[in-house]
Amino acid sequence: MEAQVSQIVTDTCFWKDLDAGEIIFKPFELHFNWAVTNYIANELTKWLPKFVDNLYTKGLLKLDMDGVLVNKIFILNEKQYQLRGRKRLSPADLSCLVIAESARITLVTSEKELTYRARKLGINVRGTLWVLDQMVEVENVLEPSSGVRAIKMMLEEKRRLPKAECKRRIKKWSN
After folding, report:
1. Structural domains of the chain in order of their starting residue, each with its CATH number
2. Which of 20, 68, 114, 149 is at 20 to 30 A from 135, Cα to Cα?
3. CA–CA separation, 107 and 103 (whole Å)
C-alpha cells in the first residue's frame, strides 16, 4: 500500500538546519509535498541563495497568499504587541501560521516561539528532528550514521535544536 502524501509548510530555519547538516535536498526523498509561503521564499533567497533554485527544481512549492491571508498576517502582527513576555515573530513566520491554519496543513519549524504559537492555534507542528526521524526510521532514505553526522553538524553550527533529543537520537542511531 502506497504511503499517503501530505503537504507540509516550512519556515526558513528548517532549511537552514538542513543546510548546516548538509542534507538540504534529502526531504524531497520523503513522501511529503514541501512548501513555503512567498514570505519564506524571499528569506530563502537571502539566506540560502546557492540552493534556492535547486529547492524549487526538486519540488519545493511556493504558496502565494491572497489579500485575506496577508491581512491576517497584519492582524497577528498587531496582536503581538499585547503578548507580554513573548518573543515577537517576523511577518514571514506569521505567514507560516496563517497558511498552515487556513490550509490545515502541517508546519515544520525548529523555532520555539513559532511552535508555541502554532500549537495554541491547533496547528499540527513538527520539528527538524521529526523530519530526520522520518528519513532514518520511517522511510529509510538516510542511513542512521548519516543522521548522526547531520545532527552533530547542526549542533556545531549552533542550530536551535533540543539538545536532549539530539543526544537521544545520536545514541540510538550510533548503535
Report:
1. 1-175 (3.40.50.1010)
2. 114
3. 11
